[in-house]
């Protein structure tokens, strides 16, 4: 039994990792090929990306003195991972961006082989500090910090690395290649600061805890904040408070108190997926205990069930919200990346808050993105019978924002749910958008070619289970492109919703090679990176569809063409 369980975990890990674009794969021959002349066919218009080359994790996002800062892992010399620096862009609205010179780059013995991920903390004295992982001369991972050279520069262009770096090195016997990605710091009631750093001991993933009185000298705590066996290396941990009662209002990272829960998110190097738990932070013990409603392992809740990794949140004091940035890696091949001269995008920043049920988080694209909405079309009260798929005409289907609410008269026709179907992705692969059901599949056909040789459906399917209905949400890339050799997964997640009003809603942000979708007001989110060969630019179509025997109603549908931001690097 145990053997079978371990075997199934290993098969799962391999099937995930096999397809994922590992960020640390090294291709020396491509690492420093400067590519100025990029192929723009699949470049996104309103998702953040630099002019060229490789990008991965968002780093140290923050709001400081009227400006949003986004740093990110970047290869200044090629479209594959390598030569990693902290690129730096600034914005007043997180829609229009101005790119600056890299803020942190290898210069010292303690970071000469790379400036890897980390976080920013704005101290109460209104001074930002960046913590990041440096790769030293002997390829050890060390934690360092950097401060702005000139606080009166509104863009904080230059950063200096104080003399007492590094501030944390791996302990004797500790794995020096599994010690990275410091979090934003939080302050305890004792006035001391805390950060956690991702790590592992054998296969036990963990967050090493450090404390400091002055933000300069850091002492490692005897025990990690949290650890879980058999999860492997924990990359890019994120730890922050959320409120049970404040709705969408975000909390500063140091907030503690009555109705506050905490979230611990980790990025699993083994599967290249993230998961989070909601739980309780015990400040007097400096331990985090996940609630028993959160699965604490690789089958746990995800911010996004698709191409989404190494994410990071920050507290936005301007609009009192918490914002999530996530990196969407590629689904094309390394050779495609080299040929197109770029790889990786950042997804639209999302406001993130606790569901009033206390069991999961909710996410929604930041409101600022709506400033890019242009030409609009609407539909309402439209009946969709089995096999109907009316086209949504009048918007640029390659670059659109679509919001739709579906309703169904009853749940009677829902198919029976087999309790062994615990893997949403397998279920979605098996019951794709073309396999007829009872209630659903229904949703949007995005990035579709004229004769439907290519399409990426984003849809729901409702099942009847013993205790309650089960809602499956899919973003299925299996038919997204005629090109072979692409990664075309049937990404999927379940949606925890009670369906008492017989309605489900969906929003998709479509942007040339990405479809970022939000099911039921942000309960389940899925991103697909896709590379159609026919459904490109003006040859893209967009449909709403129903393939279930129950007739549905599109209560209302709003779709907008999306403009390009005025400035994007
Ligand atoms: N990538 C970074 C690391 C991090 C990993 C290096 C996650 O700091 O652990 O580019 O994608």
Textual characterization of the structure:
- With 569 residues, the protein is mainly β.
- The chain folds into 2 domains: 2-365, Tachylectin-2, Chain A (5 Propeller); 374-562, Sandwich (Jelly Rolls), CATH 2.60.120.560.
- The chain is 6% helix and 43% strand.
- It contains 4 helices and 36 strands.
- It has helices at 2-19, 28-31, 334-340, 424-430, and strands at 53-64, 67-74, 85-91, 98-104, 115-123, 127-135, 141-148, 159-160, 179-180, 186-187, 193-201, 204-212, 219-220, 226-228, 234-243, 260-268, 273-282, 287-290, 309-316, 321-328, 342-343, 345-346, 350-354, 361-365, 373-384, 399-407, 415-416, 439-448, 456-464, 469-476, 490-495, 503-511, 514-519, 524-529, 541-546, 552-562.
- The strands form 7 sheets. Strands 9, 10, 11, 12, 13 and 14 form a 6-stranded antiparallel β-sheet that branches. Strands 25-36-26-32-33-34 form a 6-stranded antiparallel β-sheet, with no helix packed on it.
- The chain is globular, with a radius of gyration of 23 Å.
- The N and C termini lie far apart (54 Å).
- Residues 1-23 have low confidence and may be disordered.
- The chain binds 2,5-dideoxy-2,5-imino-D-mannitol.
């Amino acid at each position: 039994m145990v053997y079978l369980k371990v075997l199934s975990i290993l098969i799962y890990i391999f099937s995930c990792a096999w397809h994922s674009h590992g960020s640390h794969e090294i291709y020396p021959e491509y690492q420093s090929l400067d590519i100025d002349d990029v192929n723009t066919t699949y470049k996104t218009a309103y998702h953040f990306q630099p002019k060229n080359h490789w990008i991965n994790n968002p780093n140290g996002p923050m709001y400081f003195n009227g400006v949003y800062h986004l740093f990110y892992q970047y290869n200044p010399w090629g479209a594959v991972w390598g030569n990693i620096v902290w690129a730096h862009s600034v914005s007043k609205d997180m829609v229009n961006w101005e790119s600056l010179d890299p803020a942190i780059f290898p210069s010292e013995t303690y970071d000469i082989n790379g400036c890897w991920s980390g976080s920013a903390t704005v101290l109460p004295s209104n001074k930002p500090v960046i913590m990041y992982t440096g790769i030293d001369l002997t390829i050890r991972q060390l934690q360092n910090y950097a401060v702005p050279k000139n606080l009166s520069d509104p863009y904080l262009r230059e950063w200096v690395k104080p003399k007492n770096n590094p501030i944390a090195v791996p302990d004797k016997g500790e794995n020096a290649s599994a010690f990275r990605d410091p979090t934003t710091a939080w302050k305890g009631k004792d006035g001391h600061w805390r950060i956690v750093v991702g790590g592992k001991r054998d296969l036990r993933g963990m967050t090493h805890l450090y404390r400091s009185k002055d933000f300069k000298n850091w002492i490692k705590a005897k025990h990690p904040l949290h650890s879980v066996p058999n999860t492997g290396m924990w990359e890019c941990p994120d730890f922050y408070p959320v409120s049970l009662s404040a709705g969408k209002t975000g909390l500063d990272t140091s907030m503690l108190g009555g109705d506050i829960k905490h979230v611990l998110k980790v990025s699993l190097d083994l599967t290249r997926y993230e998961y989070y738990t909601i739980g309780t932070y015990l400040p007097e013990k400096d331990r985090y205990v996940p609630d028993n409603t959160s699965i604490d392992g690789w089958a746990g809740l995800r911010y996004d069930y698709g191409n989404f990794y190494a994410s990071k949140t920050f507290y936005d004091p301007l609009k009192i919200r918490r914002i999530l940035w996530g990196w969407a890696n590629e689904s094309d091949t390394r050779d495609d990346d080299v040929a197109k001269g770029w790889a990786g995008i950042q997804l639209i920043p999302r406001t993130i808050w606790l569901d009033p049920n206390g069991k999961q988080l909710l996410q929604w694209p930041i409101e600022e993105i709506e400033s890019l909405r242009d030409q609009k079309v609407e539909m309402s009260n439209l009946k969709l019978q089995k096999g109907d798929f009316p086209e949504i005409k009048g918007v640029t289907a390659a670059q659109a924002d679509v919001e739709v609410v579906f309703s169904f008269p009853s749940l009677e026709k829902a198919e029976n749910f087999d309790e062994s179907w615990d893997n949403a992705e397998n279920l979605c692969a098996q019951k794709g958008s073309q396999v007829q059901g009872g209630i659903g599949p229904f949703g949007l056909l995005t990035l579709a070619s004229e004769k439907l040789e290519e399409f990426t459906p984003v849809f729901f399917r409702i099942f009847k289970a013993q205790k309650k209905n089960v809602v499956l949400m899919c973003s299925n890339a299996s038919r997204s492109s005629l090109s072979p050799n692409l990664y075309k997964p049937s990404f999927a997640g379940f949606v925890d919703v009670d369906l008492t009003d017989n309605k489900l809603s969906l929003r998709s942000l479509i942007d040339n090679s990405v479809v970022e979708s939000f099911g039921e007001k942000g309960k389940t989110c899925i991103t697909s990176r896709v590379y159609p060969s026919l459904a490109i630019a003006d040859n893209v179509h967009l449909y709403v569809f129903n393939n279930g025997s129950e007739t549905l109603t599109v209560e209302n549908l709003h779709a907008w063409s999306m403009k390009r931001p005025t400035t994007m690097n």
